[in-house]
Design goal:
- The protein is built from 10 helices and 2 strands, in the order αααααααααββα.
- The chain is mainly alpha-helical.
- It has a two-stranded antiparallel sheet with strand order 1-2.
- A hairpin with a 2-residue loop joins strand 1 and strand 2.
- The radius of gyration is 24 Å and the shape is globular.
- The protein starts with a helix and ends with a helix.
- The relative contact order is 0.12.
Length: about 280
């Protein structure tokens, strides 16, 4: 009789354990990154909401960089970038599923499918690009470089998507991988989209200078065009899909880093801005 009682108790514990495991699996499937990935679109989607958010963040950080002293802005951005990297490394681990819930709640449909399938989100690369640009270049050049990221990147993507059926403009495999699966019309569209913004910013910035010849409308227009071309060219050079770190190097697991236009565009644009300003003696 006692043996039967103990057997019933043992069976009851096993049933409860199985029920808990099943409930845990259901909860993971409901809130895990794979659940969200099924609802998201891939990088080929137009996703106007993502492009709008991208541009808004660019102008926001460019304004902060211009208003806040460099010795405060750069450390603050470094902390934000490192915190985002830590979040990216943890959110696929057991016990940190709530991070994906939070990301989905805040960003929703602006996320891409691969960003919930083991890859980092574009936010980390965005913050990293802004941080490096602000740290490496003078304040005005860094701000303009970030502005190119805000406009050239989403504009080039938009025009490239709209002209994807114009086959003569497509680069296909690119030049040694550079510009793979992108197009010249997208590149030109991104550059032209930056032109009015650059011209307005540079006109306001040079309004009070005494160098009348250097700050003529022609020189401002030339600088505006060159800046737009620099930002759009940097975006063009980043291949699609992006170059990614191998999963292992000499048996050591690697983080899923890849070459991202959110890093390349502001750095290259900020660098070219310094050269343009030097040439025009601004």
């Amino acid at each position: 009789m006692i043996d039967y009682v103990f057997q019933d108790m043992s069976l009851g514990r096993k049933r409860r354990n199985r029920w808990r495991q099943k409930l845990s699996r259901r909860n993971t499937e409901r809130h895990g990154h794979k659940h969200y990935a099924k609802k998201l679109k891939n990088r080929n989607s137009l996703n106007i909401g993502r492009k709008t958010l991208h541009a808004s963040f660019g102008f926001f950080f460019a304004t902060l960089n211009q208003l806040i002293p460099k010795n405060i802005f750069v450390p603050a951005m470094s902390i934000l970038t490192f915190s985002t990297l830590l979040m990216e490394c943890l959110r696929y681990r057991k016990g940190f599923e709530w991070m994906n819930d939070t990301l989905n709640f805040i960003l929703g449909g602006t996320l891409r499918k691969h960003e919930m399938e083991g890859k980092f989100t574009g936010s980390f690369y965005y913050f990293l690009g802004v941080t490096i640009t602000a740290a490496c270049f003078p304040q005005s050049c860094a701000s303009l470089g970030i502005c190119q990221l805000a406009v050239a990147d989403p504009a080039a993507s938009f025009f490239g998507r709209m002209t994807r059926n114009v086959y003569w403009s497509r680069i296909q495999n690119g030049f040694f991988g550079i510009g793979r699966n992108k197009g010249f019309l997208g590149f030109l569209g991104g550059a032209l989209a930056c032109l009015p913004m650059n011209y307005r910013i540079l006109s306001l910035a040079t309004m009070h200078t005494g160098h009348i010849g250097v700050t003529s409308p022609a020189s401002i227009a030339m600088a505006s065009v060159l800046l737009g071309l620099a930002g759009s060219f940097a975006d063009l050079c980043v291949p699609t899909p992006a170059l990614t770190m191998p999963k292992e190097v000499c048996g050591v697991p690697m983080l899923p880093f890849h070459v991202d236009d959110n890093v390349v565009v502001p750095i290259f644009s900020g660098f070219m801005c310094t050269k343009i300003f030097e040439y025009l003696q601004w």
